[in-house]
Amino acid sequence: MAKQDDHAHVYARFHDAVNMSPSEIEEWLDTAESRAVGFKRDGGESVGHASGRRIVQILRTPEAELDGGDYAHMRKVVGFVRRHLAQGPHQEHKVPGSRWRSSLMNWGHDPLKD
After folding, report:
1. Taking the complete model, does pTM exceed 0.90, yes or no?
2. Rounded CA gap, 112 and 109, in Å?
3. 66 Cβ neighbours under 8 A, 6+ residues apart
4. What is the mean pLDDT of residues 60-77?
5. Do 37 and 84 meet the contact criterion of CB atoms below 8 Å apart?
6. Distances (CA, A) of 77 to 15, 60, 82, 91, 92
7. CB of 102 within 8 A of CB of 35?
């Protein structure tokens, strides 16, 4: 598969996985719930929270201006969302405020929108 075709595939999968708008993600990232979940390196910002900020940047960048690092992060987002969704959906996890849902939302996916 040519790199251009691979990029088109990754771009489409990313936009399937991320079902929140940039403004929805930013609003979510400002909440205490967002900051309370996820793996934190060195006790700082969680990996998912940092990813959410990067997702907003990618969503606001014209497709023609995305670079290899952006596509690598898009692959990472798709993988995380798929793995996390495979862990559920259990009804108790779908309740607003669950850590499962909060983690997914840090990565730009709200399972209640499905």
Report:
1. no
2. 9
3. 7, 11, 58
4. 97
5. no
6. 10, 16, 9, 23, 24
7. no
